[in-house]
Amino acid sequence: MSAYRLSSGGLVDRSKVLSFTFDGRPLRGLAGDTLASALLANDQLLVGRSFKYHRPRGIVSAGPSEPNALVTLGSGARSDPNTKATVAELYSGLTAKSQNRWPSLGFDVGAVNGLLSPFLGAGFYYKTFMWPRQLWEKLYEPVIRRAAGLGRAVLERDPESYEKSWAFCDLLVVGGGPAGLMAALTAGRAGLRVILADEDFRLGGSLLSETETIDGSPASAFADRVAAELRSLDNVTLLSRTTVFGWYDDNVFGAVERVQKHVAEPSAKLPTERVWRIAAKRALLATGAEERPLVFGGNDRPGVMMGGAIGTYAERYGVSAGKSVAIFTSGSSGYRTARGLAARGMSVSTIVDSRPDAVDAAPDGVRVVRSGSIIDTKGSKRLSGIVVERSGYEELIACDALGMSGGWSPVIHLACQRGGRPVWSEDLKAFAAPDVGGGLRVIGAANGVYTLSGCLRDGAGKAAAIAEELGFHAAEAPLPVIDAEVEPSFAALWYVPGAKSKAFVDFQNDVHAKDLGLALREGFGHVEHAKRYTTSGMATDQGKLSNINAVGILAGMRGVSPAEVGTTTFRPFYTPVSFGALAGTSRDTHATPTRKSPLHEWAKKNGATFVDSGLWFRSAWFPRGGEKTWRESVDREVLNVRANVGICDVSTLGKIEVFGVDAAEFLNRLYCNPMLKLPVGKARYGLMLREDGFVFDDGTVSRLADDHFFVTTTTAMAGAVMSHMEYCAQALWPDLKVRFCSVSDQWAQMAIAGPKARDVLQQLLDEDISETAFPFLSARATALRGGINARLFRISFSGELAFELAVPAGYGEAVADQIMEAGRAHDICAYGVEALNVLRLEKGLLTHAEFDGRVTPDDAGLGRMFSAQKPDFIGKHLSARYGLTAADRMQLVGLKLVDKDKEKDMRAGAHLLKEGMKPSTLNDQGWVSSAGYSPVLGQHIALAFLKSGRERYGEKIVVWDRLRDHEVTAEVCDPVFVGSENTKLKA
Amino acid sequence: MASLITCPHCGVRPKEEFAIRGDASLVRPAPSASDEAWHDYVYVRANPRGRTVEHWHHVAGCRRFLVVERDTVTHEVYSVVDAAAAVRGAER
Amino acid sequence: MVRDYNNRHALDQKLRGTPKPANADHLEVSHWQAIATVLAHAGLDAAVERALSSTPDLSLRYCGPGEWLVVSHVDTPVGLMRRLDMLCGTQAHVVDQSDGRVLLRLSGPSARTILAKGIGVDLHPAAFAHGGSTNVLCGHIAVNLMASGADVFELIVARSFAESLFDDLMAMGRQFDISSAFSE
Amino acid sequence: MRYSAFSIVRNALSGNLNWRPQWRQPQPKSHYDVIIVGGGGHGLATAYYLAKEFGVKNVAVLEKGYLGSGNVGRNTTIVRSNYMLPGNEPFYEFSMKLWEGLEQDLNYNVMLSQRGVIMLYHSDGQRDAYVRRGNAMWMEGVSAELIEREQLKKMIPFLNYDHARYPILGGLLQRRAGTARHDAVAWGYARGADQHGVDIIEHCEVTGIRRENGVVTGVETSRGFIGCGKLALAAAGNSSRVGEMADLKLPLESHVLQAFVTEGLKPCIDHVIVYGGGHFYISQSDKGGLVFGAEIDGYSSYAQRGNLATAEHVMEEGVSMIPGLSRVRVLRAWGGVMDMSMDGSPIIDRTSIDNLYLNCGWCYGGFKATPASGYCFAHLIARNDTHPVARALRLDRFARGYAVDEAGAGPQPNLH
Fold it and tell me: Which of A443, A523, C121, D152 could form a disulfide with A458 if both were Cys (CB 3.0 to 4.6 A apart)?
């Protein structure tokens, strides 16, 4: 055993030795150690450097409030920077590295900042580095940035996995110390569904470092007994290694469970961390109390620790923090710590008590200095002595560890995360939890109850009351018997006067008492201003140790009570939570769900290249042998559709069945064009507006029966349109008898387009689909030969003779295969969305590239669809506003390149300028929405929005793409490039 | 609110099952109403600090629009009713 | 041309191949069943529900007011539509969803723990009773969930999401060595 | 007291005891020429420019809490002028230019860091939309670059190029854009305004607006009545409440937007990166924390706190864009209450009351707009005339049909 490991005691397993490294040095610890306790046992007290002055810093605490002992665990893609050694569970093979030092922890060049500290006071950077201006970016900021941060994030792909889970319970108990355990036991026995969450890897909280006995045996044995009983209850869930990090509306709590952070080789079956969202009918906060550090000269010297932490290291881990310990206290807790250490055989030399009239009993042989102050400390990388001042006399007392105890603050963070402000309690000399209603109650030390028996009673009592409220009955059970205990008391001591060196308030951010003075002098006396100006409380520990002292010091300087100063706001997260845990499984290709068309496999076997379209994959083009670029494939597909026939998967379009006696009336109010008199068996193109008059979506409406319509939407807007219809039907016109059902997934739908489309399709159907029997815009249910139910529509998005055929999704692939087979003699080809885009572009048909949410029907050249005759429809009234009808609005036009050189192109996103005009926002004439090469026309064409565009056909205009240094001249033309306007929607 | 909403049709549900549409106190004007009435309906919001009614769409549940009456400061929910029922109630 | 059309299941790619033994926690994908949406006419919710729930071989899944998914393991899709039309054709609109929905059955001692990783609804038997059903979000995907047995849950999902949901469920169950297969 | 390296050295040598308050704590006077309601970035900037540029020096800024306690103290500190619409771009570019001279102008280092803002695109359609935006920027003389995938890989190697749900194809970069230290902006303007004689009155809540014969005569406050010649509202987040005191009905909803910061890290992210596969933006502060945010929570709220579901969604997007963020720990989440307007753009205008002026509706854009908002508002107040770059941002644009809808989402505030 090492020099600092006590020869006996502690809840560590002395038979299980664990090897680990710190800064490359091989060390050994024991099962049950934290990294911090193992480091202390190995005489590795110095673990880090502070943020600003790079001062050597040692372990201060034994828990999550640790400001100093931050290390990087692991390496490469498994690095965890800024890990608190005080909560990191030791495992065999752990590697830890110190941070924020160069070249080494022992010798850190950055420590020179300490010498410059008079110039680096709070907020100094706001006052300088302004001249010359150029130097900020080039010199000052890079230097400041290099000094930033503590640990290093490698930003490599994390090989581990994460997950989330929901949990519901009657009672959530946060914290597994005496109060929490007793509460969980009481509620568990009464039959409540209980969840007990505790951040430690061993249940028991303060019981694990308690020197008192319960029912005659060690407190830790009591904890083990309760934990065992809780484990045996089906209605109780124990979540250890689980930190409740946030309290949200409706009594929902966020918690993170470190499932595998304590193993060297994580199992692939388990997540590394799991985030729990716990919906609790009631919750009890049993998070204990935090001992306060004292603010005195040299209080950051390694070896100066929280008194309770020294006790915990001795009692729980069997580690001695020093060979000769001194205590600096403002209350009885320091004496208690001293008694515990002495009982463990450690040498306690002196108790310095700030109070003049304390009556607490010191262990035998320990000197007590009453009315004493520590004004400085000695030593370099470890404490060697303290300078004690009493009645004007100074004395140097040798010691290598100092425990400080400035009283206690209840840990009430969670209770204050939903807007409740902490309440100053003169009794507790601390901020206590506000009354936040019945959902969350505070018990034990978090409630200001500082005796063990009091904590047990508080936990049992409040849990029993909750059981009654929820209709359960908690049987009276005798409370465990504790040996005689004293109610702790202390005097508030925010700042120890007479400091001969820096007296730190916030250790990690290097904020010392004088910084707060400076802040106050400069007008930053409000607690929020002081925090922001000095950065006190903004470090990774969020001021768990420092905030209360900062408040006290500000109060003292301002001559008011801490109540008047108040606190800064408590916000999630109680302790930092990894991105990975909060993201869970949603990452990489699983970031969102993926939707696949029923024709996905069909497209795949036909060689499709896929492209994302929202959640969907859509086939983009179908390359064939010898085609080197996507353009070659797309050109071929387009020409083949125009000359022969093609088949395209359009299953991703939204498909909605609309039923009801008022269905026609409903759709008539929904679309801007008339729908009331659409005949059964007919389809119509429809345009839907938002209430502000701009185009919302377009699609087709087919009437299958008097009271039954079939509506299609664009792929992108399918969900939004369905929601919009539901809104209109439920919230606007609930008296209309209309119902909807999305059948987007039920039907595989394919477009068969091209002059030979009918010849191909007729082979699959007995029904006559000739021009007379099934003219343009016909729509009806039919059946394929072989008996498959189908729906057939004579609609076109390509300007060619075209049908859309829908069959039940499972049959999609087989039917598409048959169409390909039937079409072979007609040179059928599969075409994708790229060819579809060119085909529609040649016809001046629009998509979301045009309908960008700022376009009116008239802008898009569809003004004739706007039915002024209809009494009312969504978007009608506000369409009449001046701005939507002004003559200088941008209108859809076509653009043809003046220079028909095949190599020259236009690109979407370019803007338009009059020839000879200088580019400026004022001179901006419009923009190109879609562009492509038309293999039919043998040139590049584009759709654009141009100011008063329809009056400007024939005008030459500059297509200006400064972003890509590309500029060509085009002629403004009708947007229908192939065929004429009146054939736009016809076959 | 913001964590759980009790849907009158589906029971207690997490926030992510819902899409929020906005102020539920507005009444769509008659077609013949004034420009100002239409402007106010589409563009003006009372935006109260305190009690408010808002349309929440239970997208991943029953797909009903709900009127959620709640407090914009405390986030306390006072009631959740079906939107159609709320309209009919208001008409009566 | 004589047609013989194969119906391809949405999870064909995932599940085709040699069968593997079913573990304690098992995800079974139903290969054949008929599913329809039933939308009651205004005011007839109760009548429709009565008509449907009293019919043998039909399993009713609640979606929302006056809306159910009806599952039949004995009817063909066309047969189910015919039956429903007879049962409630004058009281409700009926829509075939047999090809548009995929039914997955999760069973085993850890079924609740697995589902809790994606579903924000209390699945404790006291809160979500045997026979209960509802639309719910599982991860990012909307599904209809039914407690169809003591430790058995059925999920009905839109076909296009089926692969994603399947992958999610398998990931959620990996801790318990979940297995998967088409039902016989 | 002028700030400089020299002043720091001189003060250090005298124990840093001679620094003076950066702004006074005056008692309110009975009357001011102009009262500005709201001691956030915009209100303070307005006061500063009123006094400095427009010679209106008898000005008070009334703040109900502590100075800078609103959104200037809780945002993701991004400064940029990469807008698309002609109603927005000139305004935000005017702001960008003011930012570039702000530190010298204020004699206060607000740590403007022009590290570049890059917005990623993941599809051809998104690229086209960014090209349209980039060209709109160039029309206004603002440089923008289209960075394609291979170049982007060299520039920002740690993005999710190989496993992303939506492939990262490239980005639109504005090099002049970046970040600024948010609190310092409020303090710098406060100090500047104070030096020009403006009274900044903290902890003074406006409880009513007194009107006589159709004009405002002053405000009732928690510290008594204060008279004024002109009243200017700059209380974004609470604009509706303040407006209500003057019977103004506004096209606004208040929404909560969460932002987050991680533990301090050594420099690893050099740009402001905006994800296009969702809505997520991240940068690293000079202190080392990664500062990031995403979309609003979606419901109207005056509570400065968000919900967990949104926070989780934000993390999903972050890890999707930068897989290596997975093990970085998030330190703190906070919520700002914003005015979401009906078209996603702000409002700077007169009102139906002659001497009442309105500045609101900043949506996601408030911080970056601070200098231009202050300047244009001061221009409007002092001259009763809209500044040229703010002409599209008038209140009557909705009634007239000239919404400035950058997102194309229509009149539903939570979609902007």
Answer: A443
